[in-house]
């Protein structure tokens, strides 16, 4: 019987027929990525896959190449919900089908409480309205394509360090108005098929077993019929999570919800059979939605595919280019017009110019089906305008935390990029001695090898992986530095000489989801024209460390990573970049972070750019007054040199089409229209949660309360480097004629319309974003943020001299606050101020108007 037939099943009848054991099996996953099938009743398993900026598929190791979209902060910077919905339908849903996945684990919809948060790049915004509307569009498009959205991490998961244990202590108002609001908006407008619970506690109780969040808010108040799913290894009990309403434990590896423990919990009256069946029914509801949405997945072969590399490339480039934010452009330095500006030589410098930087790290990472570097894309775009432009390059200052991976520097014996891996079983499960003959030999095209659960299942519990390749010959004699880290133990040999010993003793680190060692480095002298053999031996049992003698077996998080680069003195690198800057007619410095700095598993420690990057920018800017800085990061960074350069472009992480999008924007083929989805402070000390962001004895106090992001900067009158919503264009715009309709009241809601005229007062076609902020009555008895984004709209391709009237709708969400004492939303009577402009900066909010609400009212639900 086809698995898709389950779409027609009567769920009540199916649940009635379930045995207790079958119901238990349905409440937890199988392996890492699947739900449980019940063949007797025709219940198929469904497969889920990591997102949220692409569909990786089920493998960290040798994964299927996929389309990588811009980071969520970049997608939110488009302020374009229609584009986001289209991306969900045309790109993400189709990619999920290629990967045989029925549910995408995304979008991530947490709040950028602090840009140091390791996964800040993965969530949309510091503002709950922008985040919620973008998340709703993402979910809506994806689910229109038949693929389930699993919105995450519900909620209060706004940092990475101590993420399994810390307690997010926040007021109920902050929970409702800031941290739950994006999820509430997504539920109202898109109804995600799944909600994934956060790892952390909120106000004392882990979310996966928190009845206030899962039952009182999600089920009762919002009336949601979604399926709730744990984050991976994110439940900590049986009875508490079952009784609180956590439907599905993921993954099925090392799970709590085994037949033995669940039946014992029933027998001891910790849980009831009825509750177990209620949880199982919600899982079956998800399975049925998947069977209806994309039946071809359930009836297919389950094979992961990459698909046509060109399919969707135009929309990916459009999404990336629309996300780019022009922060500064003094003297019309941009766009670059080589012939008009007399640009015969352009220097491209910086640690990110040629590096493969397409996403942050962790579960958002994937293997790109293609990648266009900034250097490649910019050089190509300039060459199309003027083939005679000379492009020079220098790294200038290195930006990596870990040595760059070497898949493009190693070759197998038959000349393929990468190396050969040989898996060896050991004499027995407890032995450290590998057998003489390999169990399996595989081709490996990556030198960051996260095995997760993808190693051959026939291996003994402890196993060895030997990796062999040839380092491409160098063009000159050099010193070459290798870097080796592992989750397990490893050692590096070059021409059979031990170079790095990460086997005997280790230093614990954060790699591979906090299972890895720190990187150990070793230097080898290489002769020009000589190929050297590179051999890494890895075992999945980690070595003892000074602070931790445990030699644990890495049965699900094992991995090894080899990187390397030629040794170059930092002063020489810097001098090279400065010299090129002096000789060039213009400089483009491409600098920023990468997936080592911004990643799941740990938080950043500084907002500064890595190493000597800031020094590089300052020195090339001093050497060439036409210096354009392109910054890449998923969240805020500091720019102490901002006043010293004429032009700054923030590119976020743009995915596969990074270089294409940058080339289009820098040369003016695309007029930039991105707006910052979060504030960029001048210094870390200005961040609202500074001083109470870290977990202290397991507690994280949300002491800034409602004043997150730009609300804090306005409230405290602190000037950030760049305001939330800021972004320039190659043309100019004028807003005028703001008018508000009279509020209308009906069925417990209020509605009114704001209208504003947008005029292109410049000389080229451009796109602009209208941002509407609301201030609550000064007569209110409670404190409110001074300014709150409540609506936005985009005006597309407005010709010079032309105008367009933009209308945006406001409803009860624009005027409501949470009243703790009565557990309801309240709309006060009084005068509300509407401000409209091009960013949240006071000087940018050029228009204002007021409206009155005559009578206070309350509401609940959505």
From TrEMBL:
<dbReference type="Pfam" id="PF01915">
    <property type="entry name" value="Glyco_hydro_3_C"/>
</dbReference>
<dbReference type="InterPro" id="IPR050288">
    <property type="entry name" value="Cellulose_deg_GH3"/>
</dbReference>
<protein>
    <recommendedName>
        <fullName>beta-glucosidase</fullName>
        <ecNumber>3.2.1.21</ecNumber>
    </recommendedName>
</protein>
<dbReference type="InterPro" id="IPR017853">
    <property type="entry name" value="GH"/>
</dbReference>
<dbReference type="GO" id="GO:0009251">
    <property type="term" value="P:glucan catabolic process"/>
</dbReference>
<keyword id="KW-0326">Glycosidase</keyword>
<dbReference type="Pfam" id="PF07691">
    <property type="entry name" value="PA14"/>
</dbReference>
<dbReference type="InterPro" id="IPR026891">
    <property type="entry name" value="Fn3-like"/>
</dbReference>
<dbReference type="InterPro" id="IPR036962">
    <property type="entry name" value="Glyco_hydro_3_N_sf"/>
</dbReference>
<dbReference type="InterPro" id="IPR002772">
    <property type="entry name" value="Glyco_hydro_3_C"/>
</dbReference>
<dbReference type="InterPro" id="IPR013783">
    <property type="entry name" value="Ig-like_fold"/>
</dbReference>
<dbReference type="Pfam" id="PF14310">
    <property type="entry name" value="Fn3-like"/>
</dbReference>
<feature type="domain" description="PA14">
    <location>
        <begin position="414"/>
        <end position="578"/>
    </location>
</feature>
<comment type="similarity">
    <text>Belongs to the glycosyl hydrolase 3 family.</text>
</comment>
<dbReference type="Pfam" id="PF00933">
    <property type="entry name" value="Glyco_hydro_3"/>
</dbReference>
<dbReference type="InterPro" id="IPR011658">
    <property type="entry name" value="PA14_dom"/>
</dbReference>
<keyword id="KW-0378">Hydrolase</keyword>
<dbReference type="GO" id="GO:0008422">
    <property type="term" value="F:beta-glucosidase activity"/>
</dbReference>
<dbReference type="InterPro" id="IPR036881">
    <property type="entry name" value="Glyco_hydro_3_C_sf"/>
</dbReference>
<dbReference type="InterPro" id="IPR037524">
    <property type="entry name" value="PA14/GLEYA"/>
</dbReference>
<dbReference type="InterPro" id="IPR001764">
    <property type="entry name" value="Glyco_hydro_3_N"/>
</dbReference>
């Amino acid at each position: 019987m086809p698995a898709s037939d389950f779409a027609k099943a009567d769920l009540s009848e199916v649940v009635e027929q379930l045995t207790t054991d079958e119901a238990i099996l349905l409440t937890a996953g199988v392996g890492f990525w699947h739900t449980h099938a019940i063949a007797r009743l025709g219940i198929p398993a469904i497969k889920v896959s990591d997102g949220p900026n692409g569909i990786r598929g089920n493998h960290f190791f040798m994964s299927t190449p996929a389309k990588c979209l811009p980071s969520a902060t970049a997608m939110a910077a488009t302020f374009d919900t229609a584009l986001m919905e289209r991306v969900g339908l045309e790109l993400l849903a189709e990619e999920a089908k290629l990967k045989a996945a029925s549910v995408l684990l995304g979008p991530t919809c947490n709040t950028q409480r602090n840009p140091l948060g390791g996964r800040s790049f993965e969530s949309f915004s510091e503002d709950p309205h922008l985040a919620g509307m973008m998340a709703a569009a993402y979910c809506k498009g994806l689910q229109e394509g038949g693929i389930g959205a699993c919105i995450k991490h519900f909620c209060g998961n706004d940092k990475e360090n101590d993420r399994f244990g810390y307690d997010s202590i926040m007021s109920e108002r902050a929970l409702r108005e800031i941290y739950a609001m994006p999820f509430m908006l997504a539920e109202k407008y898109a109804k995600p098929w799944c909600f994934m619970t956060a790892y952390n506690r909120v106000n004392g109780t882990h979310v996966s077993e928190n009845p206030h969040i899962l039952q009182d808010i999600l089920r009762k108040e919002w009336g949601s019929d979604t399926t709730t799913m744990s984050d991976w290894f994110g439940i900590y009990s049986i009875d508490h999570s079952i009784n609180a309403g956590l439907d599905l434990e993921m993954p099925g590896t090392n799970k709590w919800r085994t037949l033995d423990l669940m039946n014992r919990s029933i027998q001891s009256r910790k849980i009831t059979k009825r509750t177990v069946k209620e949880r199982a029914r919600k899982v079956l509801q998800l399975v049925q939605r998947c069977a209806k949405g994309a039946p071809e997945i359930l009836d297919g072969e389950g094979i992961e595919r990459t698909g046509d590399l060109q399919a969707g490339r135009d929309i990916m480039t459009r999404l990336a280019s629309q996300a780019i934010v022009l922060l500064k452009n003094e003297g019309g330095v941009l766009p670059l017009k080589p012939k008009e500006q007399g640009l015969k030589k352009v220097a491209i410098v910086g640690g990110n110019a040629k590096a493969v930087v397409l996403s942050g790290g962790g579960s958002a990472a994937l293997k790109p089906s293609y990648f266009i570097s900034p250097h490649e894309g910019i050089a190509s775009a300039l060459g199309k305008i003027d083939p005679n432009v000379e492009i020079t390059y220098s790294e200038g200052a290195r930006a990596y935390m870990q040595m760059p991976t070497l898949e493009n520097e190693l070759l197998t014996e038959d000349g393929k990029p990468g190396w050969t891996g040989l898996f060896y079983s050991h004499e027995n499960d407890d032995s450290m001695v590998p057998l003489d003959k390999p169990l399996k030999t595989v081709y490996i095209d990556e030198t960051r090898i996260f095995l997760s659960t993808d190693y051959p299942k026939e291996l003994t519990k402890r196993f060895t992986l030997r990796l062999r390749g040839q380092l491409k010959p160098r063009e000159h004699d050099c010193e070459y530095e290798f870097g080796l880290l592992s989750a397990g133990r490893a050692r590096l040999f070059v021409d059979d000489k031990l170079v790095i010993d990460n086997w005997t003793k280790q230093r614990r680190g954060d790699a591979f989801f906090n299972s890895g060692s720190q990187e150990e480095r070793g230097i080898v002298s290489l002769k020009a024209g000589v190929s050297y053999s590179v051999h890494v031996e890895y075992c999945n049992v980690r070595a003892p460390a000074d602070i931790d003698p445990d030699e644990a077996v890495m049965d699900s998080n094992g991995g090894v990573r080899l990187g390397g680069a030629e040794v170059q003195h930092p002063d020489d690198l810097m001098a090279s970049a400065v010299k090129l800057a002096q000789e060039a007619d213009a400089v483009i410095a491409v600098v920023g972070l990468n997936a080592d700095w911004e990643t799941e598993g740990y938080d950043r420690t500084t907002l500064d750019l890595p190493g000597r990057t800031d020094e590089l920018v300052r020195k090339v800017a001093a050497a060439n007054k036409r210096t354009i800085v392109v910054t890449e990061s998923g969240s805020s960074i500091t720019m102490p040199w901002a006043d010293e350069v004429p032009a700054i472009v923030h590119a976020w992480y743009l995915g596969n089409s990074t270089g294409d999008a940058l080339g289009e924007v820098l040369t003016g083929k695309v007029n930039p229209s991105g707006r910052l989805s979060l504030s960029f402070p001048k210094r870390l000390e200005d961040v609202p949660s500074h001083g109470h962001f870290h977990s202290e004895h397991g507690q994280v106090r949300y002491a800034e309360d409602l004043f997150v992001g730009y609300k804090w900067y306005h409230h405290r009158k602190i000037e950030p480097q760049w305001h939330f919503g800021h972004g320039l264009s190659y043309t100019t715009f004028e807003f005028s004629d703001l008018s508000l309709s009279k509020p209308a009241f009906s069925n417990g809601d209020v509605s009114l319309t704001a209208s504003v005229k947008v005029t292109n007062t410049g000389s080229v076609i451009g796109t602009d974003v209208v941002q509407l902020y609301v201030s609550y009555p000064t007569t209110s008895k409670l404190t409110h943020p001074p300014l709150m984004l409540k609506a936005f709209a985009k005006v597309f391709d407005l010709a010079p001299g032309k105008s367009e009237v933009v209308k945006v709708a406001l409803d009860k969400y624009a005027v409501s606050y949470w009243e703790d004492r009565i557990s309801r939303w309240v709309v006060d009577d009084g005068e509300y101020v509407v401000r409209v402009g091009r960013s949240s900066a006071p000087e940018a909010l050029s228009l204002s108007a007021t409206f009155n609400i005559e009578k206070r009212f309350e509401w609940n639900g959505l």
